[in-house]
Every structure is written in structure tokens, then in C-alpha cells.
């Protein structure tokens, strides 16, 4: 049977589980098989004692691994995104773009865009050196470029939105000369008024 812990008292060493069968089952700490103490909201897997009606042999329920959630958790260890943007360093801006991997809506200030570009270039140089040392013939560099493709397009679009331009202007990069106006626009200051993509980024 699976359920969710509604409450657990350390003082009395007892708790209550709300099971998926819509019933509630009492349990004691002696029946807990987890590696840490039970806590309210924990998903659990348990048996039911047929004589007492209490929950027994209570284990933490296994949940399917979500790779995106796991990556997000790892990024949270690298950068604290809860602090004010004025306190962001280069890595914080880079992580913010990675966490907004395919978010093309909204606006991005210059710092967000250019710090992402800077860290991407630094990573690219490091990976090219690794390719040369390992003799992997640009394999690692290709994988890095593939991984950074969507966040690059997304932050580029948000940066253009912040200058009151459509993200579709990035298609100019397909022409040789088109990179020049794009660089100028990406380097332009934030338009202070609201626009179809939201409020100013700063």
C-alpha cells in the first residue's frame, strides 16, 4: 500500500499515514524503515497489520527519476538563484540561462546575455583543449555546442525582447552581414517601458 505521512510526533514516536485507499493508518516509529526520520508529506510504501489495522514495515516510496529535476537540483548547488540579481556573479547569470533552457518568453538584461556568452566561450576554449589533449577530434566541443544551442537561442530572443524587438530577428545570423545589427541590438540598453514581452528586465 502507498500513502503520504500526515503527521509524525518525535515525542510520542507515533504518526498517521493517509493511504491511497482513502483510509488513515496509525504507525509507530519502530515500524519505520527509512534512513532518516519520517516527516510530514513523505510518500511511503507500507503493509497493514490485519489484527490492529496499523501500518507496518514502512519504507520511503520509490519515485521515478526525473532527469530534468535532477539537473535543476545540481544547478541549485552551483548557484543560489534566490538572491537579488544585483548580487549575481558570472556563474549565477550563466546558471539562470541554463535553468530557463527553452524559455523564449519574457525579457533579459544585458548582463544575463553577455555573461552567458562569456562563460560559453570560456567553456568552449576549455573543451577544445580537452579535445586536443584526448584526441577526440572536436567531439566534446560538438556536444557542448549542442547542449548550449537552445539556451543560447532563448536568451538571445529574450535580450531582443528587452530592446522591443522580436526574437525572430535572430534569423539574421544565417546571413554573414546580419550578425552586425544583432550584436548592436544585443548590446543595446533596456527599453524602460513595458512591451508585449513584459516589464523591463531591470
Biggest sheet: strand arrangement: 3-2-1-4-5
> Whole-number radius of gyration?
25 Å
Structural class, from secondary structure content? alpha+beta
Helix content: 25-40%
- H/E element string? EEEEEHHHHH
Number of strands: 5
The geometry reads as elongated
Low-confidence stretches: none
Summed over residues and divided by their number, the pLDDT gives a mean of 90
Q: Count of DSSP helices?
A: 5
- Main sheet properties: 5 strands, antiparallel
Task: Tell me the domain tally.
Answer: 2
Strand content: 15-25%
The CA-CA distance between the termini, in Å, is: 51 Å
Brief digest:
It is built from 5 helices and 5 strands, in the order βββββααααα. With 202 residues, it is an alpha+beta fold.
Description:
This protein is α+β, with helices and mostly antiparallel strands and 202 residues long. The chain has 5 helices and 5 strands; from the N terminus they run E-E-E-E-E-H-H-H-H-H. The two termini are 51 Å apart. The radius of gyration is 25 Å and the shape is elongated. Helix 1 packs antiparallel against helix 2. The protein has a 5-stranded antiparallel beta sheet, with no helix packed on it. The protein folds into 2 domains: 2-60, OB fold (Dihydrolipoamide Acetyltransferase, E2P); 67-186, no CATH class. The model has no long low-confidence stretch (mean pLDDT 90).
